[in-house]
Fold this protein.
Amino acid sequence: MRAGSLFPFGSWHPLDRYVAPARRNAALWLIPLAAILAAIVYLAWVCAQVLAVGLVSGFGTLMGAPFTDLTAPAGMLGFLLTFGGAFLGVALAVRILHGRAARTLLAPDWVPGWSPGVSEGQRPMGRDAWRTALAVACTHLPLVAISGFAGDLVANRSLLAWLLLLPFAVPAVLIQTLGEEVVFRGYLLQQLGARFRSPLAWMVLPAIGFGALHLANGAGAGMLSIWAFAFGLVAADLTARTGTLAAAWAFHAANNASVMLIAGDEQMPGLTLWTISGSAEAAASMTVGTLMVQIGLLALSWLAVRIALRV
């Protein structure tokens, strides 16, 4: 059993159950092989996506918008859907290289329901997911309201147009966040946790990888990667406390939905209802003080989720 956590209260004991499926084949040399296989599948998925776009509306376009234009709804949807390849790649890797089912990346036993499942000791993932999303919403939406009162929100599209986009946008955000969570808090956390008891391995190393992923975000990427590293620590902590990927996935999805669907920056407004005035410049010139505020808000959301889940 794993004693300890980020604070004296609470427990990481459920982590033992979560990493159990990975112990069947936990050789470290399989991780780079899995990364190569997942990368091949991901690239094939993206190529297939681009090919489909080309056949439907002309190569390099998606429904009349540039495929990489994140200011257009179609371009943003296309970008988010590319992360489906990450999920498929990791799912195939664990099946071929580790001999286990892809569903074990989410939980050791499949108990998706809203009440305690038949598998003793596993939390119901559906209940954890909606409680997590609600807790994050309770911390993010007041900030959106404050931005509105301060006059920082700029209407990006009509409410009706936004509502018509939601049936496509919400699944896209879920796919994007599932792809990232399965890689970092699913596969990497489980494989490293099966070999090492120290959180420096199963918590910190995937968080470093998650932060490094965000270095590709252009201007201000350095500060963003530090925030992403902190996010990785928080998501790993929630995974260890609950023993499934549900809370981390919902935490990630709710956070991204807040900035990608409700009030986002001016660089990625393809699906948002509002944009935040001056956000592009603020991101490019983020100071350490602003970063600390953002990490503080992240910690507040994490505490709200812990209270909601009672972990």
